[in-house]
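Give me structure tokens for this 252-residue protein.
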Amino acid sequence: DGVSEVLAHRSDNLRDKFVEIPCSEDYDSHKRFAGCTPRKCGRGVTDAIITREEAERIRRIAERGLSLGGSDGGASILDLHSGALSLGKHFVNLYRYFGDKIQDIFTEEDFALYRDVRQRIQQRIAQVFGISSSAMYLTKPTFFSRMNSTGAKTTHDEYWHPHVDKVTYGSFDYTSLLYLSDYSKDFGGGRFVFMDADSNKTVEPRAGRVSFFTSGSENLHRVEKVQWGTRFAITISFSCDPEHGIGDPLLG
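Here you go.
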């Protein structure tokens, strides 16, 4: 693994930690949007915009949704926008599959909290990168993930491969992760790893912690395999291209 350095320990309470790194050329092959497309690149971590209590409430939304399905392998996803839910080795559309019963699972308050948290993350990213929050669009896929130590059954379960978000999803310009459980308390392994040429920089998840970064090759990353316990997070991503924008999820 070469040299590893911890960017954020679970025990840290970080107001704002930001590391600027040179932008890759990935953005050059896409249309540029003034006031949004990254010109300043890097990665940040903050424990100051979402409280632990809010993170716990959001985790309960994930737990309720994922209790309806779940992957046979170690990684399950729930996308409130598209309705995609892991079920066995496949995905189903939560809204079609469960119909009106959805009202018994989620409340308007759940969706309002989700929207509020998404807005706060969007504003923080805009502030740190010096762009306009209104120039950023929520984009897909934006989803909850639940990971445990069960072996992978399909390629969808293999979450640990190194990847670049801008390459995997062309629409991504800024990626964020909100952690909903604690490294070394709720699960082992499962740290987030930025893979730089000289060393790896790890982020230890902690409930309420937001990690955010520009989505190009300057932030090649992977997630370690979860060794024990259950790791919950939500990936919330933004595009500078309005054509790739999606709305907040709505109940019913």
